[in-house]
Design a protein that fits this description.
Elements (H helix, E strand, L loop, with lengths): L15 E6 L14 E8 L2 E5 L2 E5 L3 E5 L5 E6 L4 E7 L12 E4 L2 H9 L11 H17 L7 E3 L7 H9 L7 H8 L3 H12 L3 H19 L4 H7 L5 H12 L3 H10 L7
Antiparallel strand pairs: 1-7, 2-5, 2-7, 3-4, 3-6, 4-9, 5-8
Helix pairs in contact: 4-5, 7-8
Length: about 270
């Protein structure tokens, strides 16, 4: 994250710091903070790399990034509204030690929006401290069931071309033999190494990429569900919906409803 480098968050002598920007400018550089960090996407979508995993934050979703965890912001929609909230965290609660991606329920959303009044405030403010202490105290309760929507980046260099192929051609049919030839590995060896490195089979990895890409397209609101299904590689809306439901535990129509109404809570 880098709206501008004039504010050194770790050097501020205050327990919380709020940072809102209408349109963020990112430097795509790995970095870390002493404070924990809550990133909320009010509109648009954002990709974030955290400890060699790529996470997608669709509209009305947030991610909690623990203190001192290495991360960077990746590509995002043309227009994105982000609220970044830094906080000294309670070490007694294990929630703050883990990365959590979650849908932001209406009550928390309103609290985040209210906190915008303190955006980029450098001096201590008692009202800000009291309010944000309450927000972060309740945060673990708002995030009872986190959504682990991410894909891992393998360290094995033999898989580099495979990952590039998936990201460039996720909407095409996978032919494992061709991928094996690309990596100079047998199909069986490729499957074994890939599962060990990413935690997913080749087909499951492709499915995750397709669903993540579809969430990005759903957030933009420019295409219908049918158009999105074919865009990401499914041959029918029904097969796309089944795949979406198996990953997300709710349907594409539910996701659109949340974006449009800003009032329906999704239970993961």
């Amino acid at each position: 994250m880098n709206a501008n480098d004039s504010i050194k968050v770790d050097e501020l002598n205050k327990p919380y710091f709020v940072w809102f920007e209408e349109n963020w400018i990112h430097d795509d550089v790995l970095h870390q903070h002493k404070k924990g960090q809550l990133v909320y996407v009010e509109s648009g979508f954002q990709y974030i790399t955290i400890e060699e995993k790529i996470y997608l934050l669709p509209q009305n979703h947030a991610v909690w990034i623990p203190s001192n965890v290495i991360h960077k912001t990746n590509s995002h929609s043309e227009k994105i509204k982000l609220m970044i909230m830094f906080a000294d965290t309670d070490n007694k609660n294990s929630f703050y030690d883990e990365v959590n991606v979650f849908f932001v329920p209406p009550v928390l959303r309103e609290m985040i929006k209210y906190a915008e009044k303190w955006s980029q405030l450098l001096k201590k403010d008692p009202d800000e401290t009291i309010f944000l202490k309450a927000l972060f105290n309740e945060l673990p309760h708002f995030v009872e069931h986190s959504l682990k929507l991410h894909i891992c980046l393998p360290k094995d260099k033999r898989l580099t071309k495979i990952i590039e192929h998936f990201h460039n051609h996720y909407n095409r049919e996978v032919i494992i033999e061709n991928l094996g030839d690309m990596a100079l590995l047998s199909s069986r060896t490729l499957e074994r190494i890939f599962k060990k490195e990413t935690g997913l089979t080749l087909s499951k990895y492709q499915q995750m990429l397709r669903i993540i890409k579809s969430l990005e397209l759903l957030s933009s609101g420019n295409l219908t569900i049918s158009e999105i299904a074919y865009e990401v590689g499914y041959k029918s809306v029904q097969s796309y919906t089944r795949s979406f439901l198996s990953v997300m535990q709710f349907r594409p129509t539910d996701f659109i409803k949340n974006i449009n109404t800003n009032s329906v809570k999704v239970t993961y």
